[in-house]
Structures are given as C-alpha cells and as structure tokens.
Specification:
The chain is an alpha+beta fold. The strands form nine sheets. Strands 3, 4, 5, 6, 7, 9 and 10 form a seven-stranded mixed β-sheet that branches. The protein has a five-stranded parallel β-sheet with strand order 23-24-27-22-28, with helices on both faces. It has a three-stranded antiparallel β-sheet with strand order 1-2-8. A hairpin with a 4-residue loop joins strand 20 (479-481) and strand 21 (486-488). The chain starts with 16 loop residues before the first helix and ends in a 12-residue tail after the last strand.
C-alpha cells in the first residue's frame, strides 16, 4: 500500500495563488493566524492535520505570521490551512452517527447561541467556531465510548479550516467561514456554559472509557511563576511586575498608548529575561481592566509594542529610564492606515470592523449580520420580514401614560442604524487608505433580502403579561422566549405562584376573578363561564397553540356592558382597555383593519358593535388556523405569521354564520331594562384590575397550573381545532364546577342565519311544492315556482308564500332584494349534501350546463324523486 503523498503534490512550487490570497484574507480581514498544514494523504486517517515546520507555534504568533515571510512555508506541500486557537473556542465533534451529530449540534447552539461559522466535511463530524472569554484558555473535552468525543479547542492548538479531509472531501463552511467573518464578530462562549455543556453529553456520546492505572484526565497545571536566579533576573521580574501594575491602572482614554508603552518596555527586556510573547500577553490579558471589549485589538497592540521594544537600539539603562518616564522618547506612532486604528469615542465600547471591498459586498453583508447577532440588536424574523418588538407610549382615557407593546417592520434606515451600532464600517480607496463610512445602502438592501440566511430568532408574537408554555411551565422572564417564540415586554409584578397549586387554591383564584364579573347581567351560567374564558384565554395564550375560539358578547340593547366586559379581559392581559375596530360597511374593508392589527402584533383583536351577522374569511382563519397568510395594506407580498391572537367581538343580537359557528363561544347579556345604559356598576372591574393587575394575572395562571398539577382529570372531549384550549381552559372550568363554555355553541347554531335560511327553503320545498318534474328541478324552475304568483292570471289557490320568502331570505344574505338565478345557484351548490332534519339536498349533473336539484328523505314529492 502506498501511504505517501499523491504524485506531484510535494514539489518545490509555491502554493496556488488562490490559497495564498485566502490565507492573507483570514489574517488581514479576519484577525486569525494561519498555519501551513501538510497535504492530506487520501485514505490515510490523521493526515492533512500536521503543521509544516518544527516551530510552527512560534511562527504563527509572529506579526505577520511566518507563513507570509518564509517562502518555504507557503508551498504546495502544505495547501491545507490551519488556524491558531488562542482566543478561539472551536467546538469539534468527532461523532460518526448523523442522528447523534445533529442532536449534539442542536444542543451546542441552544447553549451557546448560533454562529455563522460551521465547518463540515463529507461526514457527520462538524466544528462550530466561537470566541473564547480569554485568549489563553486550555482545551476542554468530553470523551465517550468508541472514541466518540467533543472537544473545545483552545490554547496552543490549531484546527484545519481550509483544504481536504483525509477521506478526500473538501472542508466547507456554512453559511460563512473565517475568510468572511472577523474574530470580533464571533459570539463569545462563557466558560461556565462550556463546562455545563461538556458535563451533560453522556446521553449522546456514551459513558467515558475507564481510566488507565497511571492515567489522568486533569487539565495541565497552570504555568508556575518564574523563579529569578540572580540580581539581574530580580531586576527583570520587577520590571515585569511594574509594567503589569501599570497596565492594570489603564483607563479608557489611554488604553492603546499605555498598553503600547508598557509592551515596549517588556519587549526591551524579553530577550535577556527569556520571556516569550505568549507568556507576556497571558499576564497582560489578566492585568487589563475588565472594561476592555475588543481583546483582539488589544492583543495586536501589545504584540506590536513587544516587537518595537525588541527592535529598539536603546541600552538596558535607557529602557529603564523610559519605563520611569525620565525624559524618555514617546512610543513610535502607529501607521495611519493600520487596519485596527478605529478607536471609539471616549466611553464607548470597541466594535468589530467591517471593511467593504468593491465587488465583495456579500462579505460585508455576512460580517454585518454577524456583528448584529453578537451585539444582540433584538432583531427578529417573521417569515420574509425583519421585525422589532417595540414599546410605544400611549395615554389612557384616565390620562395615565402606559407602554403598549407591538411589532414593527425593520425599515432600511432602521437596519442601517442597527448595523452602524453593531460595527465600525470602513472602505479602502485606490491608495490603500481606509476611511470611515456609514453602512452602504447596497449592503443594507442585501441584508434585508437575505431570506433563508438570517440567523435571527423567529418571532411568534409579543405579549405584556406572564403566561404558560405548552408544557405548563411558567414564562415570566422579560425578553425573548425560544420555546414559544414570544417576546414578553413590560410585564406586571405578580405574587409568587406555587409550582403545584391545589384545587382549593384554584377555587380561590377563580373566586377572585369571579368578583370582577359580579354585576354583569348574564342570561345564564353558561354565559358567565364564557366570560370567565375571556379572562383566562388571553393570559394563557402561550400555552394554547395553535388557535383559540372566537369569543362573542351579545345583548339585546346598547349599554348592557358588552364593551366593558372586553375592557376587563384586556386590562388583565395587556394592562389597558381593549382597543377595538369598527365594522366597515364592506367586509373587505373590515378585514384590512384586522390584518393590520395582526401584523402589528396586537395580542387581542376585537370587533366592536357588530350589526346582526358576524362573518368573514379572516375571522374564520384567525380563529382556527395556526399560520395566517396576510397581505399588508398597499402591498402585494404575502406574509405568513404565527397565530398568537385572541379574537373578541361584541354587538346587539349578533349571530355567527356559516363556518364561524363551530369556531365561536358566545356570552349573552340581558339587563331586562328599557334603557340599560342608565344602570350603574357599583364596583369598577377595570379600575380594580389596573390598580393591582399582577394579582389577577397570577389568579389566571393558578387556575391553569392547578389543573395541570392535578394531572388534567376528567378532560372534556377535544373541541375540533382547539385541543389545547379545550384541555387547559375549558376542562379546568368544568373541573372547578363551572358549566362547559362550549355549550353556548348550541344556541349559536340555532341563531345561525345561513342555517335558518337552509331550513326555510328545505321545508317549503318539501311541503308546498307539488310533484311536477320527475327529473328534478333547475334553478330557473325553482325561481319560477317561487315567483309564479307575480304573473298575470295567477290563482291564489296556487300561492306558495313560504317558498317565495325562503328564496328571498337567501337573496338578502347577499344584500339584495331580488331573487337572482346566479346567487341562488351559488347557494344551492354550497348546500349540496347538507341536511335539515331528515331532508338532504343532492344534485344530478347528467346535464353539465343545467344541474338539477333534488331533495331526498322528506315526506312530500319534491320534484318527483322518491324518498328513502
């Protein structure tokens, strides 16, 4: 077997120009230290990882790295490229099972956050690249069975970033690699999170192998303090201690110059004292104040100072005077075009630098996205839109200023602002000079349209009250919740809630909420139970995917308390009265208003003063579907949003129709007064809630958590489309002795106008139409029979007013007073196979142009068809 290199790959020629350019790019633009790696021998494990040269660790730490100054290293014998790990944390998973590898990767991203630098070859193994808390942290690892391991590479190590794997596959990065992502743009891993992550990997990689008799898995001991051997060595160590003390006292305005000056002093002593650059930087890193943000820039400044100090012609005594400040010359100035010369204004943190190159704007876009993720700009994605969660100040009717949460689209100017806050932007001109710029418009537009490449978290909705997650756990910490996709903003302070409340505590909580309903004139206890569902549902909405029923409040006259009940429920869930939308004369205009509310992230969407019939495609969609497809006003693009809404409606004697009936629970109020508006509430439920909102929020949560803690006993059968609401809200109320709110649907079905119209027509058709056509009847024949009395010479004996009135009722549903063949034909097509009692409408389509309708199952002749 030939274990040597492929023919011609260890020749004397230089590395290909593209590889050389890539190495220079990761150094100059990214701040990484590249290392030449000997070529992979295809089929031989372990090859393609070995650095070229004995002193590769020293060589990669030089400025610039030795790969750029020693032509023997930049050779086609070493076209793989490694990166030095000091300052990095490379999570390297050696697991060959794809399922376990995917689980490991998901666990790492959940613990450390997303990174845009993800390396793979043609196997399950992967590497995730992050930034370390400190540049000198050692490697840590977790070892499982069968040599499965996860390593966090660190101090003194390297990993192969570009080239070919020993199996022959090319190493790839997604969505971006180190040649596109500066070190400063990488997310930082906390060591405490890393330790917890590595300690919890046994279920995925198996138990660790048994230790050998003399083996040890402990980390290498810390570098011992240098033991000075003579007077000169003591002098060297005093200079070192003094310099580190001076570094520890540096403040924001003098960090660069002070660090450079002390490094000059240490560099002058380094050769005689035997100090390495890495040792000195380790001490300086520990001495620098914690307020330093850009450790990469600080390290470069310090190493530049060491280099200048070593090259200084001053004798040892002159260097000592330089340290003491006795007439010493100032440190050499930095070159004006230095790539790290972007010192922020005093008091502002150092930001990563994004350089925009002509023809390479996509690199700048990738770096800009990474900078925003690192800076935590709180931008989210909502389908194909970038959005932000905002608190907008508003004034209540009582004159109180409140914060109203909402969702707003990230416009291009706002995106440019966030990019400018997250990074420093620069451009290189023809002379090689770097100038500060604002984020270019082209880059901003590119980022805004990078659908599918955004690393931002998906947003389901925004809430302003604590809630439950689908698993019953409490969501009470402000900020983004990755489990539900909800952003909790400005929640009230709530009393402590028991982890496992008892049924007694649930009854006490329900009694507190019932006090708010004491003076509402409910027609029965079912209506009161629906009202209690209105209080509970918006607060518990996080635990009730995918949708909740539409809640209707109806009364025979104005002033009965319909809007006030909506205000009470909204006060608990949002801290304000319920914002409502009026019903427009045209259905499509009403839907535009409701779509705008959904896109703005309103947790409660309410229709006020609905006149008689409640219908609409949007209401059917928002009260059942988990994902809504919405079209913003004035646009043609469709936006898909998660259904996180609760929908209310109120009006005088309103009724749901068609598909809304099975999606609706109904609360009926009746004061039994001629002028209900003259009745006064002795208490003010809304004021009570706003005075101590947290108490009522906690009561809603206690009711649900007690039922969950009890094991969901005697659950009601699932209401189609609403299993979670049926389990958590409906069943909890029944468990506590309240009527089932779903019983209100039966009354809604009775009042459904479309159902009534169907019953009228079927009954009139069956009982009053004589047997006249054995082949069924066409739409035109049905209309002719219903309007026959209008013709000259008509006999009153053949008058069929019920059939005429039934057809006219269908016309009124379409806002018309004329019986139309087109409208009646559409209605008949929609009613095919529908039943009223034992009557069923069927159609005979043997004549494709003229369908004939028949009613079966009744007692009359109905078009000459026999009934079963």
């Amino acid at each position: 077997m030939n274990d040597g290199p492929p023919p011609g790959r260890f020749g004397p020629g230089p590395a290909p120009a593209a590889i050389t350019a890539q190495r220079r790019q990761v150094w100059e633009r990214g701040g990484y230290r590249p290392i030449p790696i000997l070529n992979a021998v295809i089929g031989k494990e372990g090859t393609g990882k070995v650095p070229l040269g004995r002193e590769w660790q020293l060589g990669c730490c030089e400025d610039p790295p030795r790969i750029f100054t020693d032509a023997t290293l930049n050779t086609d014998a070493a076209v793989n490229t490694g990166l030095w790990c000091d300052g990095l944390r490379a999570i390297d998973a050696d697991v060959d099972n794809y399922k376990d590898a995917a689980a490991l990767e998901a666990k790492a991203i959940a613990k450390f956050g997303p990174t845009i630098c993800r390396r793979r070859a043609d196997s399950a193994r992967f590497l995730l690249l992050y930034r370390a808390e400190a540049p000198d942290l050692p490697k840590k690892s977790a070892i499982g069975s069968n040599n499965r391991r996860v390593e966090a590479l660190g101090r003194g190590q390297q990993f192969v970033a570009f080239g070919r794997h020993w199996q022959g596959a090319t190493l790839t990065w997604s969505p971006a690699g180190p040649d596109e992502t500066p070190i400063a743009s990488l997310p930082v891993i906390k060591e405490s999170d890393l330790d917890a992550f590595l300690a919890d990997l046994e279920p995925l990689i198996g138990p660790p192998p048994p230790r050998k008799a003399n083996g040890s898995t402990a980390e290498p001991p810390a570098r011992p303090a240098r033991a000075p051997g003579d007077a000169m060595q003591h002098r060297f160590e005093r200079r070192r201690e003094t310099a580190m003390a001076a570094i520890s006292r540096l403040v924001d305005g003098e960090k660069h110059d002070g660090l450079l000056r002390q490094a000059n002093v240490l560099g002058g002593y380094a050769g005689d004292a035997g100090w390495s650059d890495n040792e000195l930087w380790t001490d300086a890193r520990a001495a620098l104040p914690a307020s330093v943000k850009d450790w990469i820039a600080a390290e470069r400044t310090f190493r530049d100072g060491l280099k200048n100090g070593r090259a200084s012609p001053l004798v040892l005594e002159d260097r000592e005077r330089l340290h003491q400040g006795n007439g010493a010359a100032p440190p050499p100035p930095r070159p004006p075009n230095d790539r790290w010369d972007f010192s922020p204004p005093p008091g502002e943190p150092t930001l990563p630098v994004v350089t925009v190159y002509q023809g390479k704007r996509h690199y700048a876009a990738t770096e800009g996205i990474s900078a925003m993720v690192t800076a935590d700009t709180s931008i989210f994605q909502r389908d194909t839109q970038l959005v932000r969660c905002v608190l907008i100040k508003a004034i209540t009717c009582e004159g109180k200023v409140i914060n109203v949460p909402g969702i707003t689209k990230v416009t291009l100017p706002m995106l440019a602002r966030e990019l400018g806050r997250a990074a420093e932007w620069q451009r290189v001109n023809a002379k090689g000079e770097r100038t500060r710029i604002d984020p270019p418009k082209e880059v901003v537009e590119q980022i805004a349209n990078m659908h599918g490449f955004w690393p931002f978290s998906p947003l389901a909705g925004v809430i302003s009250t604590q809630t439950l997650r689908p698993d019953g756990s409490l969501l009470d910490q402000p900020g983004y919740d990755a489990v539900t996709g909800l952003m909790l903003m400005d929640p009230p302070k709530i009393p402590a809630i028991h982890d496992r409340p008892t049924k007694t505590q649930a009854l006490e909580a329900l009694a507190l909420l019932n006090e708010l309903l004491a003076e509402f004139p409910f027609t029965d206890n079912i209506a009161r139970s629906v009202a209690m569902s209105m209080l509970l549902t918006p607060v518990l909405r996080g635990a009730l995917p995918p949708a909740v029923p539409l809640h209707i409040v109806t009364a025979p006259a104005p002033g009965t308390g319909k809007s006030y009940l909506l205000d009470t429920a909204a006060a608990i869930a949002t801290g304000e009265r319920c914002p409502v939308f009026a019903v427009a004369p045209k259905e499509e205009e009403t839907e535009k208003r409701l779509v705008g509310a959904a896109l703005a992230g309103f947790p409660i969407i309410a229709l006020d003063n609905v006149s008689s019939i409640l219908t609409g495609d949007f209401l059917a969609q928002v009260s059942e579907r988990p994902i809504l497809t919405l079209r913003p006003l004035g646009g043609s693009a469709l936006i898909r949003v998660s259904n996180s809404f609760t929908v209310f409606a109120n009006g005088n004697n309103i009724a749901a129709t068609a598909d809304l009936v099975r999606r609706t629970v109904r609360c009926s109020l009746d004061s039994d007064l001629e002028n209900p508006e003259d009745r006064e509430f002795h208490a003010d439920p809304v004021a009570l809630v706003l005075a101590d909102r947290g108490k009522y929020v906690a009561a809603c949560l206690t009711v649900a958590r007690a039922y969950i803690a009890a094991g969901l006993p005697n659950k009601c059968s699932h209401l189609p489309s609403y299993p979670q609401w049926s389990d958590i809200v409906r069943s909890a109320l029944v468990w506590l002795g309240w009527p089932d709110p779903v019983d209100s649907m039966e009354l809604a079905r009775t009042d459904d106008p479309s159902r009534l119209s169907r019953a009228m027509l079927f009954t009139a058709w069956d009982e009053e139409w004589p047997d006249r056509n054995p082949n069924g009847v066409t739409t035109a024949e049905l209309i002719a029979a219903a309007t026959e009395f209008e013709r000259p010479g008509f006999s009153d004996e053949r008058r069929r007013p019920d059939l005429h009135e039934a057809c006219l009722a269908i016309a009124r549903e379409h806002r018309s007073s004329t019986i139309s063949a087109e409208r009646l034909g559409k209605w008949l097509r929609s009613a095919v196979d529908a039943r009223v009692g034992n009557l069923k409408l069927v159609v005979n389509r043997s004549d494709k142009k003229r369908p004939r309708w028949q009613l079966i199952g009744g007692t009359g002749a109905s078009g000459g068809y026999s009934r079963s």
